Amino acid sequence: MLDGGDLMGKRNKNDQHQTRFLCEVTGDFGYDGIGLGEADLNYGLDFLKEMIQKYDLPYTSANVVDRKTGELILPEYLVVEKNGIKFGLVSVLGTRHKIITMTNTDSGLEVKDPVTTLRDVLPRMRKEVDTIVLLGHLGQGDTDTVVREVKGIDICIMGHTHRILKSERIVEDTIFLAAPHEGRYAGRADLFIDDTNGKVMAVEVELTSLDEAVEDEPEMALRVEGYKASFEEYKLAKRAAFPRDLGSEKESYLGSRSCKGCHEDTWAAYTESSHSNATSSIRAKGQAKEPECILCHTTGYRYKNGYAEERPFNQLSNVQCEACHGYGTEHARDGKWLAQAQDSCVTCHDKENSPEFDYATYWEKIKH
Ligand code: HEC
Ligand code: HEC
Ligand code: HEC
Ligand code: HEC
Question: 39 phi and psi, to 5 degrees?
Fold first, then answer.
């Protein structure tokens, strides 16, 4: 059983939580080899290593090294024996797939050229194994280039492409196999091997769609249900760390559109400011559901009747007028609202998130 890489989820904490479970059950499936995809480093190298150790995940990569030491971060290749045939499993990552971790913009890792790497490692593997399988996390174009330029790959499992190969495809002497993402399909290849030299003579490919027609395995279905419940608890616990205990149940946020009619000029200034787009910044980071980001990138998150994911409170996205001035239902004209707004800045523009903050220069940029 082989996987072409990118097992891990997107770069946010909810996905990371689900990824732990995915790694646990993937470990139980008993894979023989998993190629390294750039997404497998989404939560950093330490997390990947923790998963490998805890769940016995047979990750391999021949071209991703620690930039400082130059050492490979994973085993260079794996050897597995099936029915007396020795398979060598080797994986390379394409250089155009950027490694970006959730915590650091610089991963400290370097991706070596796949062609040079394979030209070096393949002859050494040949001495040990009968059949060489490339777990190529390369994308379409680069897979073709690599296979053409490096001779001696018997089978190439294509990762990163999300492609479906339903029938046999052979380029030069290499057999290509691919099954798309998210565990929607399982591919199976039956190899007919010449037992005098271990060479693959013929191959039969079958791709099964794991849709409703395929019944859930009862024990696994139970585990998935159990996990889903614990995931809900996890999300609730995270939300509970930011209780909605400020303000008053009697007051409401009306939304900035309700101010527009009477405060046209202010509205115009507001829509020019980045406050009116603040939620898209966290969405762009895949963090629009994280309480620890929503806190400052929406309106009134810690307040009663403030921003929440459910309607109508989800309309309070972005840093709207009332994030600074307070509940619209309290509309005051005695100067209280101005003072309140002046004091509001530093609740969000704290040292950590806005180190350059200075009231005079910042107000100048959003004044109305
Ligand atoms: C305590 C309030 C606060 C929290 C919590 C917070 N931010 Fe921010 N964030 C700000 C402020 C204020 C700025 C503007 C900083 C500046 O320009 O001085 C900002 C700016 C940003 C920007 C830059 C916007 C741009 O494109 O220029 C991004 C991206 C961002 N935050 C993402 C996040 C993410 C992701 C989280 C959660 C992990 C988060 N923020 C949590 C207050 C916060
Ligand atoms: C980022 C915080 C912030 C946001 C968002 C914001 N304001 Fe203000 N607003 C202030 C501050 C601070 C002042 C007071 C400035 C001063 O006079 O020192 C102010 C002043 C005002 C004033 C008085 C202007 C005057 O000259 O007397 C009005 C009216 C007003 N805001 C309406 C709005 C409306 C309507 C919106 C939304 C379209 C809005 N504000 C969005 C912070 C904000
Ligand atoms: C029906 C018209 C109307 C609506 C709607 C309205 N305002 Fe006002 N607002 C006024 C008037 C009138 C004043 C006083 C004259 C002025 O300063 O412009 C005022 C004053 C203010 C002031 C200055 C307060 C002070 O103490 O000087 C702020 C801040 C303000 N409005 C914010 C808002 C915000 C935020 C909203 C939307 C939630 C809003 N207003 C909606 C009419 C309105
Ligand atoms: C509810 C939280 C919150 C409050 C209150 C708040 N801000 Fe912000 N502010 C943000 C966030 C978040 C951003 C980043 C917006 C984005 O995602 O691009 C930001 C961005 C800005 C920027 C743009 C920075 C840049 O260089 O592009 C200015 C200027 C600014 N705020 C001024 C103020 C001032 C002045 C106040 C107080 C009157 C204030 N803000 C109150 C959250 C807040």
Answer: -70, -20
Residue whose entry in the numeric block shows the structure tokens 């250089």:
95
Ligand 1 touching residue 282 (CB < 6 A): yes
Q: Is the pLDDT of residue 195 over 80?
A: no
Q: How many angstroms separate the Cα of 295 from the Cα of each of 35, 46, 259, 341?
A: 38, 28, 23, 17
8 Å CB contact between 322 and 328: yes
Residue among 348, 351, 368 whose CB has most ligand 4 atoms within 8 A, to mutate: 348
Type of residue at 242: F
Q: What is the mean pLDDT of the chain?
A: 92
**276 CB under 6 A from ligand 2?**
no
Residue whose C-alpha is closest to residue 259's, from 313, 331, 190, 202? 331
CA 329 – CA 133 distance, rounded (Å):
67
Q: Does residue 198 have a pLDDT over 70?
A: no
Lowest mean pLDDT among 104-108, 232-236, 348-352: 104-108
Give 121's pLDDT tier (boundaries 50, 70, 90): very high
- Read off the pLDDT band of 191 (50, 70, 90): confident
CA distances from 281 to 177, 267, 289, 294, 298 (A): 38, 21, 12, 10, 11
CB contact set of 205 (below 8 Å; sequence gap of 6+) = 165, 166, 167, 168, 177, 187, 188, 189
- What is the CB < 6 Å shell around ligand 3? 254, 258-259, 261-263, 321-322, 325, 328, 331-335, 337-338
Cα gap 41→136, rounded to integer Å: 16
- Give the domains, in start order, of the chain with CATH numbers: 2-227 (3.60.21.10), 251-366 (1.10.1130.10)
Decide: 189 and 169 in contact? Cβ < 8 Å: no
Nearest CA to ligand 2 atom 41: 321
Please list the residues that pair with 188 across neighbouring strands: 206
45 pLDDT tier (thresholds 50, 70, 90): very high
* Confidence class for position 83, pLDDT limits 50, 70, 90: confident
Distance CA 243, CA 240 (A): 5
